[in-house]
Amino acid sequence: MEQTAERPDSAKHFPKRRYTGALVVVEGIDGSGKSTQLYLLKRWLEISGYRLHFTEWNSSPLVKSATKRGKQRRMLTPTTYSLIHAADFADRFERQIFPLLQGGYLVLADRYIYTAFARDSARGCSPEWLRNLYAFAPVPDLTFYFRAPLEVAVQRILSGRPKLKYYEAGMDLSLAYDRAESFRIFQGMILDAYDRMVDTDGFVLMDGTQPVNKLQKQMREVLQARVDLKRFLPEK
Predict the structure, then answer these.
(1) FRET pair for 53, CA 20 to 30 Å: which of 9, 23, 111, 138?
(2) Global pTM value
(3) Using an 8 Å Cβ cutoff, are 104 and 52 in contact?
(4) Domains plus CATH for the chain?
């Protein structure tokens, strides 16, 4: 039986797409723990033999080189920054994500369109314009939002990075002269944008300060309750 992702009422911008697979997404600011948890979930599913595909934000081979050049030369305005990441997403969506959903795969995405909604609106792009830009993308079957207090998330990143990148720190927005301070302010703006989407976009809220094993247990339980995983096991 074909499965249609449940759509929050406010998600009317998105098309209803029918597919036999399922799309599971993690979102959150840098340092929230989302990528670690998705990796652990991915390994558990792989070991269990489920048919799946993993994709991550800003990873299209076709667009990645152009994005890198633009960032290195600091040529990207908020609008061009948004458009080039939208092109990256569109390429991955049309070549990987949607064909695999149609082919009956469980697709795990480390960041999805909500990353653009949060980051690009923090850079001043119109939220309505952003929703229209990504109007081709279906609503995920399940979106985990890992939320950690701003100072906790920022400290996790600063303690593990020798140097913050220009756009990563939001230096293009002239928020502060110091990169670490600019990063903290920028991440706070992104966090606020994410928080506004919790109810409107049907996020499953996860406490990013909880122990890793507890979060992973919760994540698996929610996944098993919301998605029929048996459909993604190889036929015997």
Answers:
(1) 9
(2) 0.90
(3) no
(4) 20-230 (3.40.50.300)
